[in-house]
Amino acid sequence: MAVVGCSVLVVPAAPANAAPDGLSATEVSFVGVGGVVLHGTVLAPVSTARPRPAVVMLEGAGNRGRRELRLAAEAFARRGIVTLTYDKRTEGYNLLRRDYSVLADDALAGLRLLRSRADVDPARLGMWALSEGAFAAPLAASRSTDVKFLITVGAVGMTPAAQTASCYDERLRHAGVSGSFTHTMRVTAVRMTIGAGLFPEALFDPAPAWARVRQPVLAQWGELDREALPRESSQIIRRALDRGGNSHYTIRFVPEVRHNLYVTANGGFDRLARIPATYGDYEASWIDGLTDALPNASVDPAPPQHAPSPTFTPLAWYESPWLHLAALLLFVVAFAGYPLTAAVRRFRGRRGAPPVRRSARWLAATGLVTTTGFLVYLFFVLATAASAVGPVLIGRPVAWLVLQVLAVATVVATVATALSWRRHRRDLAFPDRLRLGLLAAGGLAFVPWATYWGLLLP
Question: Which SUPFAM superfamilies does the annotation name (predicted)?
Fold first, then answer.
């Protein structure tokens, strides 16, 4: 596929500012796809007696900016490698929209900027990509022979949806969570976000791009990577490279480091901003070795994996996001509407239906609290990527356990209300029968909904 709409922005170069340890830092700008101007920093050794190897560095998911890669970039620059880090585009890349093909072309625009520098050796110019960046980097490498090598850290071999689901599983298992909540997060919530169009590029398959990569590859994972499933991802990527006829790859697992090869004090589940003292040594040696000969296929033994990543099939009719939205609207009308109409009746001096009132009140209260509490807690856990679930008791987050108890109470109240309504329906006025019937209907619809979301499962 041809690269279009990308070119280096010709602007006066910012003066090089002295960086720590004899490095220079130059602020640069270049144009990505669609004319979007991207801003970055080139770190290089102050001494430029000869052209040096260089890498464009692609950050992981989100828009954390070039500061996210600063420690790694400095480590490479101290070892004689010129680095470009840049702020990812915000136009066309956000929570609900992203395109790895566009990000790949942005990276190639950065590569052209580096290629134009006098201190860069075009024959030793490559890409370094972290996590989500490793979805885009193989696409870029397959599109341009100017990319002479590819280095990845924490590359994901399966779809983003499967990786996200497995990451949730890892974090929940680490927190001591088991049972229905794990399935809700690992499968149900991911499927629903895909179906609702809230998970961009969810089913992107990176393997075809890897199969088109012809350059030497250094693919690395931390031994304590809890996000990219190193064992499964490395196997997928290796098979893709073999399928494409590329035998010049090194698959490496780095001991005692996490997803981004940084130091960890919690088995890979933390985010410490510290790199090992030897960070960059292996990469620099590997790049230097390319001058003499291309590497033969080399694969380290992979760390164990708790469970294979899931696969995601199209949603069944009962999983339609519109159907679930309709159920939630029904719950609001039924559960919240009952006490509101009761308040209006009292304001007008009317009394309710004494034989049914107690169970109906319980149903309205427990149903409303359960559905509202479930939505709040689910969105909270999704927002924290399952890294914060609160206290855990008997294998369940306490908040989830409370919601399950309330869900059972809602079912009991539904049965009591339905039986009471049926028993006394002839004694009730039509408006009372209508609002109690609506309340009971909400309770009946609650049962399959709560079962689907795991609230009524162990």
Answer: alpha/beta-Hydrolases (SSF53474)
Give residue-wise pLDDT tens across range 148-202: 999 999 999 999 999 999 999 999 999 999 999 999 999 999 999 999 999 999 9
Greatest Cα-to-Cα distance within the chain, rounded to the nearest angstrom: 98
Which run of H or E residues covers position 382? helix 354-383
| Strands 298-299, 249-254: pairing kind | parallel
Strand order in the sheet with 298-299: 17-19, 23-31, 37-45, 82-86, 52-58, 120-130, 150-153, 217-222, 249-254, 298-299
In whole angstroms, give the CA distance from residue 67 to residue 76: 15
Structure tokens at 364: 């309205």
- Claim: this prediction has a pTM higher than 0.70: yes
Nearest to 66 by CA among 89, 46, 45, 44: 89
Q: How far apart are CA 269 and CA 252, in angstroms?
A: 20
Burial class (CB in 10 A: 0-12, 13-18, 19+), 425: middle
- Residue 414 tokens, joined: 């539904």
Please state, in angstroms and rounded to a whole number, the distance separating the CA atoms of residues 281 and 285: 6
In this predicted model, what pLDDT tens digit does every residue of 358-410 receive, in sequence order? 788 899 999 999 999 999 999 999 999 999 999 999 999 999 999 999 999 99
Give SS3 for 354. helix
> Residues of 325-342 as b/e, b for ≥16 C-beta within 10 angstroms?
eebbebbeebbbbbeebb
The number of beta carbons lying within 10 Å of the beta carbon of residue 16 is: 15
In order of their start, the domains of the chain are 17-159+204-299 (3.40.50.1820), 317-452 (no CATH)
Closest CA to 108 of 139, 66, 67: 139
